Amino acid sequence: MTPVLSILTPIEDVLTWGLEWLHTTLSLPWAWSVVALTIAVRVLLVPLTVKQIHSMQRMQQHLPEMKEIQKRYKADRRKQNEELMKFYKENSINPASSCLPVIPQIPIFFALYFVLRDFDDEIFPKYPGSDLGWLSFVPDITANITAHWSGYVMLVVYVASQIASTWFMPTQSKSQRVIFLFLPLVFAFFILDPPGGTTFPVGLLVYWMTTNLWTVGQGLVTRGLREKTAAPPPKRSSRTPPKAEQGGGNGEAPLPEPGTPKPAGPPRRVKRKKGSRR
Fold this sequence. Notes:
- By secondary structure, the protein is mainly α.
- The protein has 2 domains: about 10-45 and about 100-230, no CATH class; about 45-95, no CATH class.
- About 60% of the residues lie in helices and about 0% in strands.
- The chain has 11 helices and no strands.
- The protein has helices at about 10-25, 30-45, 45-60, 65-70, 75-90, 100-115, 120, 150-165, 175-190, 200-230, 245.
- α1 packs across α2 (about 30-45), α1 packs across α6 (about 100-115) and α2 (about 30-45) packs parallel to α10.
- The radius of gyration is 29 Å and the shape is elongated.
- Residues about 245-250 have low confidence and may be disordered.
């Protein structure tokens, strides 16, 4: 019976070819082939990551102006969204930029799941006697994580690495960061008890741990670059409030324009001498 081709089949073929090439050409064990394949995927996603970082930096620079727009149109949510969209366009800000490197990894993750699920039937018979272990304590990366105690250790390491990578991920709000911090804990329960009686191979945790450690290193590098590079002044737009409305910048009143007459103060009170009459 001819198998039904899915939308992930081309990605599965590429991943299978990559794993076999790394195993045969570079003589890497299967687990380290997964690690090398993950690094190759993250290298290909570097342009999207750079775009994400630049967009998030621009968003942080213009955050005071965005809050001013939200405050000005607080009573009209539709007008507020329209003005924010115009402001994003004028300043080249993509509010969804934090998801750019994540979106391409979703089909790769599921395709790798299918590759490892069918590994014993489709790939392993071509290379009998090859090593399926990792770091001398994971006996089989194609087995379910609940099949050996090392799977639970890998799950804990995965959750910790995911939280660490989220901490260094540039996000646009605190609420978004909190959601991403709690997602690994929710996903851990899904891994332990997947629906439909399916299994979750340890090799997928190897993939996620590698990409998380890459994200942590990337965050450390970009954070160091941000500290060394001074942020340029924000770009003015038609929705930016004038300086007279923004104040002096340090909590002081705005300075008057040159040549503006000094406003008159309260009338001066004259002290009358004792004994004087009207």
